Amino acid sequence: MPAFEQARYVASIGKLSQLPEEGPPEIAFCGRSNVGKSSAINALTGRRRLAFTSKTPGRTQTINFFDIGEGVRLADLPGYGFARVPQAVRAQWDRLVGGYLAERGSLAALVIIMDARRPFTPHDVGMLDWAQPLERPLLVLLSKADKLNKRERAAALAQARGGLAARGMPGEVCLFSSVTREGVDEARTLLAGWVEAWNAEHGHKKAPGKGE
Known about the structure:
There is one protein chain. A hairpin with a 5-residue loop joins strand 3 (63-67) and strand 4. The chain has a 7-stranded mixed sheet with strand order 1-3-4-2-5-6-7, with helices on both faces. 34% of the residues lie in helices and 19% in strands. With 212 residues, the protein is of the alpha/beta class. The two termini are 18 Å apart. The radius of gyration is 16 Å and the shape is globular. It has a single domain, classed as P-loop containing nucleotide triphosphate hydrolases (Rossmann fold).
């Protein structure tokens, strides 16, 4: 199982030519700008500032890689859905993120973070259009779930699950809160299982620990 709390920074890349060498399975995280993606990554890894948050949508335009232990990488993709950036920046996002998703053989699973109060925005649906052909395990984390009451939580889950079903996309949906840590253990367990399945299929062995 990936040792999420041992996460360490590996690299940031702004061009596909800079991608780390293929090998270890990678879990890619994506989400609309300011949806809480960085906070979700920090919660999952038990770190306060592993992934940096920004109040400026579209500011981060690199893919950031982290080693999360047991020969597994986490890929933090730049946020989507930003409105106040030049067209050239959007085109760069398409080339970088689209190229990574389409070409990365090491991609073992994809996590899309959506706001539990407003899941499946047009931008989220656009991201699903990118994800659907990949046929990779998909986890939708409904962030900021602590801001919803019981009825709203049930409605958000139903809406997200229905949205995936309507598109014919298999996937898991979890309520998530970086404040209360709701969904952290569930997400870790799901991702660890998918990584194990990827390793079994591809014959990849985890990196040996120190002293081995």
